[in-house]
From TrEMBL:
Pfam families membership: ABC_tran (PF00005), OB_MalK (PF17912)
SMART domains noted in UniProt: AAA
Name by which UniProt lists this protein: Multiple sugar transport system ATP-binding protein
Domain ABC transporter: 23-253
Annotated keywords: ATP-binding, Cell inner membrane, Cell membrane, Membrane, Nucleotide-binding, Sugar transport, Transport
Family recorded in the similarity comment: Belongs to the ABC transporter superfamily.
GO molecular-function term, one example from the UniProt record: ABC-type maltose transporter activity
InterPro entries from the UniProt entry: AAA+_ATPase, ABC_transporter-like_ATP-bd, ABC_transporter-like_CS, ABC_transpr_MalK-like, ABC_transpr_MalK/UgpC-like, Mo/tungstate-bd_C_term_dom, NA-bd_OB-fold, OB_MalK-like
GO cellular component terms, semicolon-separated: ATP-binding cassette (ABC) transporter complex, substrate-binding subunit-containing; maltose transport complex
CDD domains: ABC_MalK_N
SUPFAM superfamilies noted in UniProt: MOP-like, P-loop containing nucleoside triphosphate hydrolases
Length: 389
């Protein structure tokens, strides 16, 4: 029974005879007046992928999604969905649906009427509408709520109704624009599970925009990291964690975030370089760079290890105990930024205590003056990512 129902929803999403829902973007750009909001962008999203676009506010990720949806007109470039050029097609003719962060439900309509609304607009037969609404409501556990109004629903229930209304149209591609930003922390976690389950059951192509890198790490087959209107890097969650191509990617991936410090290359050999920090401490890094180069060094909190002779240290200004893990925020007099280091959850630390840390050279990241990652010696090491994902 479950397999039959799952197959029915897959057919509803893709439509009869439609088995390709890839999205191809070529040279797509957007300009508002003299401002380039989206630089020329090339991107291929395969049929059935769950791609998450992540980046800070104003980086162009929502603009890219709206261009795919047809809600914005591109300044240049083309968009193809399922192999069909839809650059100039109306939103309703693109075979996709969009879920907004505001839910956008009609308050005077019941859950069933909200879900059925796009089918009524399309003048589908009543029997077909009833069948589709029931199938989608069953897949999203909404059957007991069909007679309620939106005001009688929780935030998570409203979001599920919004998703149901989107997929009942049989879209080939589902676009989601920061759908969890209005929910509290506990509900965000539950809804992340809901989206992952939905994608696993339906196999739809999903393009999901968020500024929350935890959502990106937990949901995505691939992540698109954006910064200042351009795509910085595209790859799997762990690949981006292990080998960020730019400073922007390093800042976007990892929780807590990577620690950064200005450094100078003072020595180089076949094994890597020696980096001198502002306080005179030296750190070995398995990267290639010329002596004298000014770089930005990056180290992840979870890669630091307690070492009384280590190059990193300071007084504990804040100590966060989070069950199996703890995080110490270390400061030095006059410093504008703290160093965050991960500790075992059973470690006891007093505020004001001085701690020092070391790190393996192959776990040190370094970026040049343009923010590009320096070439690494050997492949990035595999690490324990449980704290990030």
């Amino acid at each position: 029974m479950f397999q039959l129902e799952r197959g029915l929803i897959r057919c509803m999403l893709r439509g009869k005879g439609e088995d390709v829902s890839s999205v191809r973007i070529e040279g797509l750009s957007k300009r508002f007046g003299a401002v380039d909001v989206l630089a020329p962008t090339d991107l291929l999203i395969e049929d059935g992928e769950f791609v998450v676009i992540v980046g800070p506010s104003g980086c162009g990720k929502s603009t890219l999604l709206r261009l795919i949806a047809g809600l914005e007109e591109p300044s240049a470039g083309r968009i193809a969905i399922g192999g069909r050029d839809v650059t100039d097609a109306a939103p309703a003719d693109r075979g996709l649906a969009m879920v907004f962060q505001s839910y956008a439900l009609y308050p005077h309509l019941s859950v069933a009427e909200n879900i059925a609304f796009p089918l009524r607009v399309a003048r589908r037969p009543k029997a077909e509408i009833a069948e589709r609404v029931a199938a989608v409501a069953r897949s999203l556990d909404l059957l007991p709520l069909l007679d309620r109004r939106p005001r009688a629903l929780s935030g998570g229930q409203r979001q599920r109704v919004s998703i149901a209304r989107a997929i009942v149209r049989r879209p080939r591609v589902l676009l989601l624009d920061e759908p969890l930003s209005n929910l509290d922390a506990e509900l965000r976690v539950r809804m992340r599970h809901e989206f992952a389950r939905l994608h696993g059951e339906l196999g739809a192509t999903m393009i999901y925009v968020t500024h929350d890198q935890l959502e990106a790490m937990t949901l995505a087959n691939r992540i698109v990291v954006m910064s200042e209107g351009r795509v910085e890097q595209v790859g799997g969650p762990i690949a981006l964690y292990d080998a960020p191509a730019t400073l922007a990617v390093a800042r976007a991936i990892g929780s807590p975030g990577m620690n950064f410090a200005a450094a100078t290359v003072v020595a180089a050999d076949a094994a890597g370089v020696a980096l001198r920090l502002g306080d005179g401490a030296e750190v070995r890094a398995a990267v290639r760079a010329p002596v004298g180069a000014a770089v930005t060094m990056g180290v992840r909190p979870e890669h630091l290890v307690l070492d009384e002779q280590g190059p990193f240290g300071g007084a504990v200004e804040l100590f966060e105990r989070l069950g199996p893990l703890s995080f110490a925020h270390l400061g030095t007099p006059g410093a504008h930024h703290t160093l965050v280091a991960q500790l075992p959850g059973d470690r006891r630390v007093m505020l004001g205590a001085t701690l020092r840390f070391g790190i393996r050279p192959e776990l040190v990241h370094a970026f040049d003056g343009e923010g590009r990652a320096l070439p690494r010696i050997g492949a990035p090491p595999r690490a324990n990512h449980s704290a990030q994902i």
